[in-house]
Please model this.
Amino acid sequence: MSASLLLSPICHDITLYSIVGLTARLNGCDGRAMSQLLFGSPYAGLRHDFPSNLDHFCSATQGQYGEPACIVNDFTTIPYFLRFRSAPSREEALQHMCGGSVEHLKFSLGLPPCPTGALLPLRHCMECARNDLNQFGFAYWHREHQLPSTLVCPEHGCALHEAGIRADGTGWTSLHLPLDSRDHGESPVPLIDRPTALFCQLAKLGGMSLRSDRGDMSAATLHQAYLHGMKQNGLLTRTGQVRATEFVGRFERTYQPLATVRPFDRIVTPRCVEGMLRLVRKPRSPANPVSHLLLIHFLFGTWDLFNAVVSWEGHMGPPASSEASPIDLPCHNPIGPSAPAHLIGPLLAISQKREAGNISLSKACREEGVDVGTAMRWLAKLGQPVPKRPKKLTDGVLSEARRLLDDGLPLVLIGDQLELSESTIDRICSESPEQMQRWKAANLEWKREKYRQAFLSAIAAEPTITRGQLRKLEGGGFSWLSRHDRAWLTERLPAPYSAVARPRIKRRPRVDWEARDAECARAIAQLAFDFQLQSWERIKPPAILRRLPKLSFSPRLDRLPKSRAAIAEILQHTHRSSD
Model:
């Protein structure tokens, strides 16, 4: 370290990014120059979440801030993200941050697809910033404020402000501190409009998770702690099953105020809240810390109670001596020193049946009405550990399963043939996307052949069957073929019935127009050509028709051609006379 280099003091809850920024201010350097000096890279020290090149930083500062492990634990938010995960370990995360890039670390933590995202914006509390300015002469970024689940200040209860410098993509090559005057980027905006007690409680839980001295929790211990909390809240049945509908309903009602606030909007909304069941069932992959904190708040309320339950579960195990009666053996668990009263009788019966032999644990549990998992856990705690069933999926079974998948057989049929569960078949498919794609293509051809044969068999069994009957025939394949193989189906459909032309019936007219025409023509012939028109009359056919004697019908000249010609002759004569 250069003798003239002034280092930032260590303040309560300060971030490493703030230390680098204050050091740059004290020495009059810009961001990239200070990052190059402290980290050996012009950009390693500009990352406000997970810095890299920590070995070079410790060497440049001569260990003034401690070893790399102390820096990661005391000046970054890494403990928050590793708290509920077993992988990556703290050693692996430290190795990434001592190296040249931390991008792989973010993917290992699952940040890009999770509700928090991989880009965590800078946040600060206005009250904390003003207090820091009055006490130290400068404001700095607090670690607790940078946690994704913290939207209000745990100390003052006011909404945090999100800095617009890095949120909009600007200012990445500079080092910034709260309350700086900005010549680019958006002004800080509050994360929420009205802070409530719920936001404050979650912020305090996040801070406790960040500062807790407990090591990273194993998935098994965490799962058992959650099950204990579920039982205390009445969300487990007597046999240890999760009351899923009640859990989802209560969880959704409790956190409904958070449904429109990031990052909770991707956790507590009705279409996402069922994902919380993965934490209380057998988790197959780690979840984001925000989901864990919501579940801890829902089941335990405080970090101290949760930490006590985790401690009990961590120390719980089978007794050292196996000479005592399995029901009377002491056990350390948060529920009590022995098994619940309603389980003592069934557990004793299950133990006796297993000792007698010729019965599986599953069958014994079904006969006694106890969940298999509950029985295995209590028998293990009470001195009779039950060995898990040996793996069914041997190399030979796996090869046969893959062969059947390549043949396109339905998953249920494969499971029946190999006596494998549906979840096991799903795992085989999910392990290889290429295997899944091959099965989908082969399964389509398998279904095509199956339904074609069913359709042809239906036609062969009843040659006179109609299209309508084929459409309604159960198992005939008409519906599937019409959606996926219409061209083949159209070629083999029976010919539709042709419409039968009805013979045209020659209708006998009701009116004898020729007779009417002859009657009207005779009446017109009796009319003299030299009749006199009144002054108001025009030389039109109505003037002639008004002078005819009474007929047996009303004349329609369009249907009486002879009468029409006779009237036209009279009108023509009248015109000549008037001229």
In short: The chain is about 50% helix and 0% strand. Residues 118 and 568 are 99 Å apart (CA to CA). The two ends are 133 Å apart (CA to CA). Confidence is low (pLDDT under 50) at residues 317-337.
